[in-house]
Design goal:
By secondary structure, this protein is an alpha+beta fold. The protein contains three helices and five strands. Helix content is 43%, strand content 18%. Strands 1-3-4 form a three-stranded antiparallel sheet. Strands 2-5 form a two-stranded antiparallel sheet. A hairpin with a 3-residue loop joins strand 3 (59-62) and strand 4. The radius of gyration is 14 Å and the shape is elongated. It starts with a helix and ends with a strand.
Length: 79
């Protein structure tokens, strides 16, 4: 992982769009983000929770390229 990116985050959280446009992420860093998102979705779906609004504006990135999914306004519990 690119240490300069991690230092620049400095405990701030950004929308994924900002990160992808303003930082030169390596393919490995992009895969880390994607893998983290898949883990989040897998965890939710295992509990029968459906987000229903996955989009870049609802994905936040923090230190260590950790993904946070936000805005559960239209989510539901699957039957």
């Amino acid at each position: 992982m690119n240490n300069s990116i991690i230092r620049e985050f400095n405990n701030l959280i950004y929308q994924i769009n900002y990160i992808l446009v303003n930082f030169d992420l390596s393919d490995k860093e992009k895969m880390i983000i994607l893998y983290d998102l898949c883990g989040i979705l897998e965890s939710f779906h295992a509990k029968n929770l459906i987000h229903r609004d996955i989009k870049p504006g609802n994905l936040m990135i923090e230190d260590g390229l950790k993904v946070r999914l936000i805005d559960f306004g239209v989510s539901k519990i699957a039957s």
